[in-house]
TrEMBL record:
Transmembrane segments: none annotated. GO terms for cellular component: cytosol. The keyword Transcription regulation applies. Residues 32-140 form the Cyclic nucleotide-binding domain. Residues 154-227 form the HTH crp-type domain. This is Crp/Fnr family transcriptional regulator. Keywords: DNA-binding, Transcription, Transcription regulation. It comes from Rhodoferax koreensis. One of its GO terms (molecular function) is DNA-binding transcription factor activity. The keyword Transcription regulation applies.
């Protein structure tokens, strides 16, 4: 498939261009991080738990953070993954005073910790910073809508196809063989966000590779047939 054909297929898909994966948003949080020491977290470390008091906001400098909520019975629901340039911990700071989600480092991650009171003062003092925070809040609402779509998609193949399509819209670039995803993810991350087992995700990806719908370009994933991946989302359940 020619690059232009692949890109036009994605651009013309009748599906919102949103993704659960917020990678490297074009925001500058220097006003919050100036003079602060970066803090490194190992993979699996918890920044905060759902319901904890909001004492700090975290600016992600490197790595990825996964947000999740828990039911009264303790069942975990994964919401989104946020990469460098993103904020976590600000939900609940102005109203409830407690974190609405839990936040866990998906990989080794570096963050800047900003006291909640200082964060609110900065938003009040700097209109541009406030506008930026609102824009990032909108991106995360889009991610929540994508997660809702994923959970409503049904079978594993539809959930993974929808996730791949969202990633292509948000992080895809033209490639001679199709559309290359400019983000890398682990099967565990894909399984978490799609509410599937890692084995189910592995099975779906192997099938897509065997059918030539997905390819590898070094460490990058290439969607070779974007139209066919998108068609899987609307196909009858199986």
């Amino acid at each position: 498939m020619r690059t232009g054909d692949a890109r036009s297929t994605l651009e013309g898909a009748n599906r919102p261009r949103r993704t659960f994966w917020i990678e490297a948003p074009a925001f500058d949080w220097t006003a919050l991080t100036n003079g602060r020491q970066a803090r490194t977290l190992s993979q699996g470390s918890t920044l905060f738990e759902q319901g904890d008091p909001v004492r700090s906001i975290f600016v992600i400098s490197r790595g990825r953070v996964r947000l999740a909520t828990y039911s009264d019975e303790g069942k975990e629901r994964h919401l989104m993954v946020i990469g460098p340039g993103g904020l976590v911990g600000d939900w609940g700071v102005a109203d409830r005073g407690s974190h609405l989600t839990a936040a866990v480092a998906s990989v080794d991650t570096t963050v800047y910790e900003v006291p909640a009171a200082g964060f609110l003062r900065a938003l009040q003092a700097e209109p541009e910073l406030l506008a930026q925070a609102m824009a990032f809040a909108e991106q995360r609402i889009q991610a929540l809508l994508q997660h809702h779509d994923l959970l409503s998609a049904g079978p594993a193949v539809k959930r993974v196809a929808l996730a791949l399509t969202g990633l292509a819209h948000a992080h895809g670039v033209p490639h001679p063989r199709g559309v290359r995803l400019q983000v890398r993810f682990t099967q565990a991350e894909m399984a978490s966000i799609c509410s599937l087992s890692r084995m189910s995700v592995s099975t779906v990806l192997k099938d897509l590779f065997s059918r030539g719908l997905l390819l590898r370009d070094g460490r990058w994933l290439v969607i070779a047939e974007p139209g066919k991946i998108d068609a899987l989302i609307g196909s009858p359940d199986r």
